[in-house]
Design a protein that fits this description.
Low-confidence stretches: 270-301
Number of helices: 10
Shape: elongated
Mean pLDDT: 84
Strand order of the largest sheet: 1-4
Radius of gyration: 33 Å
Strand content: 5-15%
Number of strands: 8
Order of helices and strands: HHHHEHHEEHEEHHEEHE
Structural class: alpha+beta
């Protein structure tokens, strides 16, 4: 091969590469998307869980919304908590606002002893799949199946299966809501941490007698808790009670009056739970007066 042809080929390829490089450089300048430095800083501060608990499409979506003024709430990141809210507020020059620590709670106490099985299930060991077969193998169609979909979704290792039902460790939970989305029975809710709140550990919508057959600790919709609550914090809807955490003061009267004990205080690291008021004891009967001895009159002399 002629050496001149080789040199020309190399020069030709080099020129093409140089031209294409210049074209890409110009295009990168012309088509560059301006980057908001605040959005970058906020993204670095956020925990990166991308759980969507803030209501946006992950951490980058929340950072972008803050930087563009679509929201001014700096405390929407539940996994980050108050510390992240303070850092975000510092970047944005806004007030961090107040945020209550929250934890997920599985609203079911239907353990293996309280709610048995109505069939031997041998399918895919997942709650979502099992619930499609007559609601699942458990006697209570509304109860926790205990097959661990929420456990698999939790990125903080805060959930474990104990005695047939899922339980959340409130000190490890970051309120990311991923377990809420994973539960096909919609049994998981967020409640305030470090506040004594009454919780109905039941979602059974069957009428009282049937609910007790399905689970010994089921809510029977008896309305006793509604009558006992002085703060209008409890409502019975579809045969099951529900407590409004915002209105609940933790007085304990509803807990004391619940006949099935499905209404309990949620134990979320509260240093001292309020004492459940005891039923008034009947006043003790007065002891009968001792008979007074009558002295005999002295005999007349």
């Amino acid at each position: 091969m002629n050496i001149t042809a080789i040199i020309l080929a190399v020069v030709f390829v080099s020129v093409i590469g140089l031209v294409l490089g210049l074209v890409l450089a110009v295009a990168s300048i012309v088509m560059a998307v301006p980057v908001d430095e605040r959005a970058v800083q906020i993204s670095e501060v956020l925990p990166g869980a991308n759980c969507g608990a803030c209501g946006f499409s992950g951490c980058s979506g929340y950072a972008d919304a803050l930087s563009k003024g679509k929201t001014t709430e700096c405390n929407l990141c539940a996994p980050g908590g108050a510390d992240v809210a303070a850092e975000v507020a510092n970047i944005m020059g806004l007030s961090a606002g107040s945020s209550k620590p929250m934890s997920a709670v599985v609203m079911c106490h239907g353990t293996n002893e309280c709610s048995g099985s109505m069939m031997n299930y041998h399918g895919d060991m997942g709650c979502k799949t099992a619930s499609q077969l007559f609601g699942g193998p458990k006697a209570c169609n509304y109860g926790c199946l205990g097959l661990g979909d929420c456990v698999k979704e939790c990125p903080y290792d805060a959930i474990a299966i104990e005695n047939g039902i899922a339980k959340v460790n409130p000190l490890a939970c970051r309120a990311c809501k991923l377990c809420i989305k994973a539960c096909p029975k919609s049994l998981i809710e967020l409640v305030p941490v470090y506040e004594a709140k009454a919780v109905v550990y039941c979602k059974n919508q069957s009428k009282g007698a049937q609910a007790r057959k399905e689970c010994s600790v089921a809510c029977i919709g008896c309305m006793k808790c509604v009558k006992a609550c002085e703060f209008d914090a409890i409502k019975v809807v579809n045969n099951v009670a529900h407590v409004d955490a915002e209105k609940c003061t933790g007085c304990g009267k509803c807990v004391a009056g619940c006949p099935t004990h499905c209404l309990q205080f949620v134990a979320l690291g509260v240093a001292e739970q309020p004492k459940v008021p005891e039923a008034p004891k009947p006043a003790p009967k007065a002891a009968p007066a001792a008979p007074v001895a009558q002295s005999e009159a002295p005999a007349a002399e």
